[in-house]
Amino acid sequence: MIMMMCATLHAQEAEMLTTVEKVDIERYAGLWYEVAKIPNKFQKSCDRNTTAEYSVAKDGKVIVVNTCIRKNGSINVARGIAKVANETNTKLRVSFVKLLGIHLFYGDYWVIGLDPEYRWAIVGEPSRKYGWVLGRSSTLGDDDWTAIKSILKSKGYDFNDFQMSVHN
To answer: How far apart are CA 54 and CA 82, in angstroms?
Structure first.
């Protein structure tokens, strides 16, 4: 019985996803390169050179512009909005769906790892079905990858689920 309770508590701990302590949104704003991702259906058309650019609007919302190049060479641009969902700015709710000027279908965007100098970030969401490694440049050093892999493991992600992004 005690073993079963311990196993249940461990499973619940593993399911809880924690974020970094705090994100300075002004510092987080700017251009990020997608360095790695868990492949997902909404980015299926993206072949290479995926970036995300964030800027802070006067109302405090974050404007999101994701760009990539498709297999046929055309550029794909997705514009969205993010609302800060907690007082530490570590959890955002992002929407790329707009109908009659109203954003719909917000998804979780949680900063679960962040370099102290804001050179790279790890973004995830509670189910761990999605995840991204972002960098201020399109490549990261070995020490960065060691830290990132350790954070992903501690957060319940399997690094083998991530695919390296192509930039040229």
So the answer is: 9
Q: What is the pTM of this model?
A: 0.87
| Residue 143, both tokens | 């020490």
Separation CA 109–CA 9 (nearest Å): 25
Name the phi and psi angles at 4, rounded to 5: -65, -40
- List the chain residues with pLDDT less than 50: 1-14
Domain annotation covers residue 14: no
Name the domain count of the chain.
1
How far is the C-alpha of 123 from the C-alpha of 12, rounded, in Å? 21
The alpha helices in the chain, defined as continuous H runs, are 2-15, 25-28, 142-154
**Structural domain that includes position 68:** 21-162
pLDDT digits (tens, 9 = 90+) for 54-90: 999 998 889 999 999 999 999 999 999 999 999 999 9
